[in-house]
Amino acid sequence: MTKQFSGVDFADIEDEHIVELFKDMAGNDRPTVKANMFDWPNPTSIPPRPWILGEHILQRELTVIAAKGGTGKTALSLGIVVSLITGRACIGLPVYGGPRKTWLYNLEESMEELSRLIAATGKYHGIDESAHRENLFVNSGVDEPLITATESRDGLTIAEPVYDALKVAIQERGIEVFMVDPFVSSHQINENDNTRIDAVAKRWKRLAAETNCAVVLVHHSSKTRGGDSSVEDARGASALIDAARIGIAMNKVSAADAERHCIPAEDAKAIVRIDMGKANKSAGAGSKYMRFQSVSLGNGLVPDCIGVLEPYALPDALTDITARHVYETQQIIKLGNYRENVQADDWAGKVVAEVTGMCADADKKKVSRILKTWVSNGAFRVEKSKTEKGRTSPYVRVDREVDPNDITT
After folding, report:
1. Under 8 Å CB-to-CB from 145, ≥6 apart: which residues?
2. What are phi and psi for residue 105, nearest 5 degrees?
3. Chain centroid offset of residue 270 CA
4. Using N-to-C axis directions, what is the helix angle for 194-211 and 160-173, rounded to 10°?
5. How far is CA 34 from CA 31, 37, in A?
6. Could you read off the pLDDT of 66-99 as tens digits, one per residue?
7. CA 407, CA 114: separation in Å to the nearest integer?
8. C-alpha triplet 391, 397, 400: angle, nearest 5°
9. pLDDT in tens, 355-383
10. Cross-strand bridge partners of residue 251
11. d(CA 268, CA 34)
12. Which of 18, 126, 262, 330 could anchor a disulfide with 366, C-beta 3.0 to 4.6 Å?
């Protein structure tokens, strides 16, 4: 008969560590638990968290990058890789501690394709590959599959020999960041099973802790009916995101952002937004934008062109707009009747365009953005008045007039 302790049958417990704990306490119906007095430290003496890349990759911890298909996860991964191996902020994120030895294990692309992607990324960012050769390690899952967990009728099997081999390789090479792209191809279990995904995620975390290495898992997001995806929308069980210390979401720039910043629809297709969806080891960085640039490898009559990410700042419609522009626009507006409607012949935006040196038609979105901002800032207001035909229409009026003495030369 299986020995029982405190009403618990050892045969029903799968976790060997818990079984051993109960066995150690067997014979003592009242185990002793002590409360430890906290030794309050000097805050300045506490070692800072070992950040590696921005607030996105942390030593000894697990980071998950989640994005929908076609967003550019692999391009982001490669941008991170070249930043790490060079110690440069190639994608706008600072690298702490200088160049870092990085191992990319891509499970979808062949080594030939990875060579194209890495070469293009290095070429665009001006990387001297010979100077950083010893920092980059790359494996293709097409040639060398990486299966860390399987399942059968008997339950979940964590491939401990695989993790042991990874541990040896990481320690032998001094790897500081290990990246797997994509996570779904690194196991053969039901990705919707929270219990099993949790066990796999925890095993990755243990590998990170044992090797003093940061582990980054690139993952797919679920379809969101055209809306943005967050880390919580990562495909499958939520246990993966729950286990990660840092979660990063990647999306195409939204139509609202593109319109707000007067970005043409065609240009917006090349812009992506990076969000810190989960940052429980930091205050969380704000959204960062990146843009795809096409890089030619120059290899043959029809050279391969590869999309590479670069940091991108959303344009500001009010750049180079001054108080004098506001003042001069007010002087014209207050002498006439100018409508809010962009379709009207007497649209107030035409005055804005004239004063700022823009074209009311070609720069319509930018002009509209400027006028709306001035209205929201109180320089102008919109009020309904009678037209010459007796109809009611919204007109732009001067509200808080700029003092000429406040205008600098």
Report:
1. 107
2. -115, 95
3. 15
4. 30
5. 10, 9
6. 988 888 999 999 999 999 999 999 999 999 999 9
7. 56
8. 155
9. 999 998 888 888 998 999 999 989 999 99
10. 273
11. 60
12. 262
Strands of the sheet containing 338-339, edge to edge, are: 338-339, 392-398, 380-386
| Cα 69 to Cα 307: distance, rounded to the nearest angstrom | 15
Place of tokens 């990874």: 166
φ/ψ (deg, to 5) at 350? -65, -35
Ramachandran angles phi, psi of 314, nearest 5°: -60, 135
Tokens of 298: 């120059």
Token pair of 364, please?
A: 């319509």
Which DSSP category does 174 fall into? T
Residue 292 backbone dihedrals phi, psi, to 5 degrees: -80, 135
Q: CA geometry: angle at 297 spanning 181 and 86, to 5°? A: 55
Sign of CA dihedral 147, 151, 154, 156: positive
**How far is Cα 253 from Cα 266, in angstroms, rounded to an integer?**
12
Nearest by Cα to 122 from 301, 306, 273: 306
Measuring CA to CA, which residue among 307, 358, 354 is closest to residue 333? Answer: 354
CB 291 within 8 A of CB 253: no
Alpha-carbon gap, residue 401 to 331, rounded angstroms: 9
Rounded CA separation 238/402 (Å)? 54
Axis-axis angle for helices 349-356, 323-333 (nearest 10): 140
Closest CA to 151 of 104, 108, 200, 95: 200
Q: Which long-range contacts (CB under 8 A, 24 or more apart) does 363-368 make?
A: 363/262, 365/259, 365/262, 366/262, 366/317, 368/342
Residue 65 burial (C-beta neighbours within 10 Å; 0-12, 13-18, 19+):
buried
- pLDDT, tens digit (0-9, with 9 covering 90-100), for 118-158: 999 999 999 988 888 899 999 999 999 999 999 999 899 99
